[in-house]
């Protein structure tokens, strides 16, 4: 049992909420642990104005946190799993996934009650290629423009009238106490969420067995199976974020149902497929679905983008 656990975290309100949440869960284990937050600014935070696809991807939001753990300045890092790349650096591992929050994307507007209510040509803000592609497929008439920044910044830009509506993860809004801003939670079948959306994960040093034993007690087994399928899919597809890849798994009665979409940002063509099987085969299901998507057209899209050879 470690005496002190130091949590590396970004300083955005959502990241801090997640870090405090993990701190509270650790303290609630009732083992006299001390827990400290080590807040830091990542390169990703400094570049929040630019599209993720242009600044080199989501790894930028976790690199400083990982460096702090590798240098012994922090013991664990708390992440939105959506922001965590497919592979972890040598010496670090993902050691616990907490039970997930709502995985859906949320339609947020001050004027319209749902995506269907948006008038022809309405202006929607989102920088996510995954959201843009699926939105275009559902509503080719909409005008979509980039929208970057923390959740609060994005809501402010909506409130200033820069957009008729925006799309955000329901989980982030719920965690920040802003659930009343959700006009409509988009059905996961019509609008497939990002891999890991709504799931908080904890990374630590692989060799730190004492901390890992403690983190084991926060671990949610079903969430882990769900995430295993989604991340296996993502890894096989090159794990890139300059590509619109959506993937969502749900589990009922030991059966896992994984759904995925790969889109071509250039042509707005989409390849979609789904697979079902025993939840205990989560990784294999993710792999198999990825292979099927590659053969059905995703290979050409990803090769065209230089994501896979
Ligand atoms: N890309 C930023 C990000 N990373 C995680 C969340 C939401 C919380 C989650 O998915 O767990 C968000 C905000 C958003 O997409 O609206």
Descriptive notes:
The chain is an alpha/beta fold and 309 residues long. It has three domains: 4-98 and 199-219, 3-Layer(aba) Sandwich (D-Maltodextrin-Binding Protein, domain 2), CATH 3.40.190.10; 105-185, Periplasmic binding protein-like II (D-Maltodextrin-Binding Protein, domain 2); 232-302, Double Stranded RNA Binding Domain (2-Layer Sandwich), CATH 3.30.160. 33% of the residues lie in helices and 24% in strands. The chain has ten helices and 13 strands. The strands form three sheets. Strands 2-1-3-10-4 form a five-stranded mixed beta sheet, sandwiched between helices. A five-stranded mixed beta sheet has the order 7-6-8-5-9, with helices on both faces. Helix 9 (221-236) packs parallel to helix 10 (282-304). The radius of gyration is 19 Å and the shape is globular. The structure holds the ligand NCc1[nH]cc(CCC(=O)O)c1CC(=O)O. The ligand NCc1[nH]cc(CCC(=O)O)c1CC(=O)O binds next to strand 8 and helix 7. Pfam families: Porphobil_deam (PF01379), Porphobil_deamC (PF03900). GO terms for molecular function: hydroxymethylbilane synthase activity.
């Amino acid at each position: 049992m470690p005496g002190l656990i130091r949590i590396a975290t970004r300083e955005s309100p959502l990241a801090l909420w997640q870090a405090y949440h993990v701190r509270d869960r650790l303290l609630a284990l009732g083992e006299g642990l001390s827990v400290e937050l080590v807040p830091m600014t990542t390169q990703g935070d400094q570049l929040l104005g630019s599209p993720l696809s242009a600044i080199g991807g989501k790894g930028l939001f976790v690199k400083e946190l990982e460096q702090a753990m590798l240098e012994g300045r922090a013991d664990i890092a708390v992440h939105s799993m959506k922001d965590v790349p497919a592979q972890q650096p040598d010496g670090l591992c993902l050691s616990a996934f907490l039970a997930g929050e709502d995985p859906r994307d949320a339609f947020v507007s001050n004027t319209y009650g749902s995506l269907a209510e948006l008038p022809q040509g309405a202006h929607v803000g989102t920088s996510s290629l995954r959201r843009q592609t699926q939105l275009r497929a559902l509503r080719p008439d909409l005008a979509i423009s980039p929208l970057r920044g923390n959740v609060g910044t994005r809501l402010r830009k909506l409130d200033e009238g820069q957009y008729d509506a925006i799309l955000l993860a329901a989980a982030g809004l719920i965690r920040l106490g802003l659930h009343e801003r959700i006009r409509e939670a988009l059905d996961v079948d019509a609008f497939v969420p990002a891999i890991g959306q709504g799931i908080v994960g904890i990374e630590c040093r692989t060799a730190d067995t004492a901390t890992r034993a403690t983190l084991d007690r926060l671990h949610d087994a079903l969430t882990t199976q769900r995430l295993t399928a989604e991340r296996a899919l993502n890894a096989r597809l090159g794990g890139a974020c300059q590509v619109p890849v959506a993937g969502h798994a749900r589990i009922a009665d030991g059966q896992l149902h994984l759904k995925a979409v790969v889109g071509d940002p250039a042509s707005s063509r989409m390849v979609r497929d789904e697979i079902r099987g025993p939840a205990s085969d989560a990784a294999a299901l993710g792999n198999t679905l990825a292979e099927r998507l590659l053969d059905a057209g995703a290979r050409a899209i990803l090769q065209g983008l230089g994501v896979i050879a």
